Amino acid sequence: MRILLIEDDTTTADFISRSLKEAGHNVQHCTDGKDGLLTALDSPFELMIVDRMLPSLDGLSIIRSVRGADNNIPILVLSALGEVDSRVEGLQAGADDYLAKPFACSELLARIDALARRGGGAQEATRFTLDDLEIDLLSHEVRRAGKLIPMQAREFRLLEYLMRHQGQVLTRTMLLENVWDYHFDPQTNIIDVHISRLRGKIDRDYDTKLLHTVRGAGYVMRMPVSE
Amino acid sequence: MAIRLSGSTTLKLALLYLLLFTGSVLVLSGFLYWATAGYMERQTRATIETEIQGLSERYEQTGLAGLSFTINQRLKRNPTSASIYLLTDPSGNRILGNLDRWPKINPDAQGWVELWLSSDKVLDDKAHPARAQLFTLRGGFRLLVGRDMEYLRSIELLILEALGWGILLTTLLGLAGGLWMGRRFLRRVEQLDHTAQEIMAGDMNRRMPLRGSDDELDSLARTLNRMLDRINELMIGVKQVSDNIAHDMRTPLSRLRQTLESAQDNRLSQPEQQLRVEQAVQEADHLLSTFNALLRIGNIEARHQRQAFEQLSLNQLLDDVVELYEPIAEDRQQLIEFEQVSVPAIQGDRNMLFQVLANLLDNALKYSPEQGLIQVTMTQPVADRIEISIRDSGPGIPAELQDKVFQRFYRMEKSRTTPGNGLGLSLVRAVCDLHNIKIQLQNTAPGMEIKLLIAA
Predict the structure, then answer these.
(1) CA closest to A198 among chain B residues
(2) Which of A51, A114, A133, B111 is the most exposed place for a label (fewest CB within 10 A)?
(3) A4 and A62 in contact (C-beta within 8 Å)?
(4) Phi and psi of A116, rounded to 5°?
C-alpha cells in the first residue's frame, strides 16, 4: 500500500517508516505541512498518516484541504494531544481515525489495516464464516459446526467485529472503541476477560482454535498457523 | 521606588484634602462675615431711616422748635453716643447738631452719604467713617441723621482678622492633617507593598498585617491573605504531586532499567532475551499510561474540555459499565446488584463519565472479597438531584483518609499490593469537578459507599 507520512519528528517518522516498510508498505515521508499537502494532492496514495502539529501548516488544515478537494483517502491522525476533545476535533476535520502519541507500533499497524479495508470494501455482508464458525447478522445467530451458540448482545457485537476483520490484528483499544463505543482507559485487563468468555463459547470445545492472542498487540480471528 | 511613589501620592492626597478643607472654610467665613458685619450695617441703616422718619414727622407736627427740642434732648441725654445730627436752614447755615458743617458730598439715590469725622464730630479727611442720611424738610430746612461707624468698623475688622487667622490656621491644620492622613493611609499601603515584596522574595509564610479596624484596607489585607493561603496550598499540592511523581516513577523506571540490563546478558537464550524485552516494553507501557493519566487529570482540571459536552443518558452509561465489568465479578464470584430508576438526560462528556463509573466499579470489585456483594444503584430522591451509589463489601476507607484518597498517587498501605497507579480516584474527582458532581464517601461497615450527587 502506498502510504504518505507527514511527520516532523524524525525519530518517530523513522520508526513508523521502518515498521510500515517491514509490514510491506511503500512509505513516502514529508516533514513539513505545506510539502505534505502538496505531495498529498499531487500523487495518488492509498492512505495518509498525518501528525497534528507540523511546521508551516498544521495537520487538521491539511486534512480539511484534502477533504475539500473531494479526496476520500483514509487518513489517520497522530497527535501528542491524546485527549477526547482533540480527538473529536480531528475526526470532525475529516480524519478517519486518531491515534495518540505515544503508541505501540502494533496499534498503528492494526489501525492502518482496518482503515485500508474500510476504504476498500463497501459491501455490506450479513454473514461471516471462518472455518466452521458462522455468524448471521440478520438472525443474530452464531453457529459452530452447525451447533447454535447462545450469545449475549455485547458478545455478539464483539464476535461480529472480530469476524468482520478476520485475519487482522485488533488491539484492545480498538475493541473498546468499536464494540463498546467508549474511549476510556480501563485500569484492568477487562477486554481479556470478555475475550476469554467468548473463547469459552466458540473455541473451548473445538480442536481448531480460531480466536488467537497476539502477544503485545491484541487479538486476531483466523485459522491457526502451524509452525 | 516605593518611597518616591508614596511621597508624591501623599502630597497629592494632602493637597486635595487641603483644597477641599480651605474651600469649605472660605465659604463658611464668607457666610459668617455676611451674617454678622453685614447684619450690623443693615441694622444701622434701618435705625437711621426710622429715626429720620420719626424726626420728620415731629417737624410736621411741632415745627422747627419741636424738632430742635427733640434733637437737643437726644444729644444731651447721650452726648457720647455715636449718633450724628445736623439741622441747617435753607441756605446751609448750621442751626444745631453735633456736626460742624454740612458735608459737600452728593448723596446717592436713597439720600445716603459716607462721611469721615474726627472724634469731636468735625468733618475731616481721616479718622472715623460715618454713614448719614440727608433729608430736606418742608420749608427748605435740611436734616442730617447719621451714625459714627467707627465702632462697627472695628468690629468688622475684628471679625475679618479673626477670620483671617482662622483661614490661616485652617490651611495649616488642613495641610498637616492631609499629610498625616495621607501618610497614615499610605503607610499601610506601603506595609502591604513591603510585605508583598518580602513574600515575592521567597518568604511564603509572611502574611499581610491586620490592624483589626475592619476597614477597607483590612479587608483587602484579609483577601490578600486568603489568596496567599490558597496559593500556598496549591504550591504544596504541586510540590507533593511532583514529589510523588518522582517517587512513583522511580520504581518502575529502575525496574525497566534492570530488565533491559538483564536482557543485555549474552548468556541468555534467544527466547529468554525476547521475554525480557517484552517485560521491558510492558514496564514502559505502564509508565506511559501513568503519564497519560496524569496529563489527562491535569487537562481536565484546567477545564479545557467542556466542548465535548453533550446530552447523555446516565441509564445507558450505567448499563454499559455494569455490563462491561460483570464478567470480572463473575470470575471472582462476586455479585453485582444493580438497580436504577429512569432519569432525565444530563449534559456531560460521556467518555469521561464512563471512565469515572468504570474506575469506581473497578475499585469496588478490586477491594471487595471473593464472593462479595457490590451494589450499584441510581435514584432520584428529589426532582433536581440524581444519586449514583456504588457500595462495596471491602475494608472501607478510614474517615481521616477519605480526603487523601483523591490525591494523586495516594495509595493506602493495604492497597499498595493491588495493581493500580494511584490515579484512579484523582481522575474521578477531576471529572466530577468538571461536571459539578459532588462525591460523598461513607463507611458502611462492612464496605463503603461512594455516592455521586448529580444535578438533574
Answers:
(1) B327
(2) B111
(3) no
(4) -60, -40
Which residue of chain B is at minimal alpha-carbon distance from A80? Answer: B292
* Helix H or strand E encompassing A107: helix A105-120
Which residues in chain A touch residue B354, judged by CB atoms under 8 angstroms apart?
182, 184
pLDDT digits (tens, 9 = 90+) for A36-83: 898 888 888 889 999 988 888 888 899 999 888 888 889 999 887 666
CATH number, domain A2-120: 3.40.50.2300
CA distance A213 to chain B (A): 15
Name chain B contacts of A193, Cβ cutoff 8 Å: 327-328, 331
pLDDT tens digits, residue range B24-42?
Answer: 888 888 888 888 888 888 8
CATH of the domain at B59: 3.30.450
Q: Do B362 and A186 touch (CB under 8 A)?
A: yes
Using CB atoms within 10 Å of the CB of residue B371, give its burial: 0 to 12 exposed, 13 to 18 middle, 19+ buried. exposed
Q: Taking the CB of residue B397, how many other CB atoms lie within 10 A of it? A: 21
pLDDT tens, A70-94?
888 899 998 876 666 677 788 888 8
Question: Residue B161 domain-assigned?
Answer: no
Overall pTM > 0.80: no
CA distances from B386 to A19, B343, B360, B447 (A): 50, 7, 17, 22
CATH code linked to domain A127-221: 1.10.10.10
Which residue of B313, B314, B355, B360 is the best one to mutate when testing the A interface, meaning the one whose CB has the most A CBs within 10 A?
Answer: B355
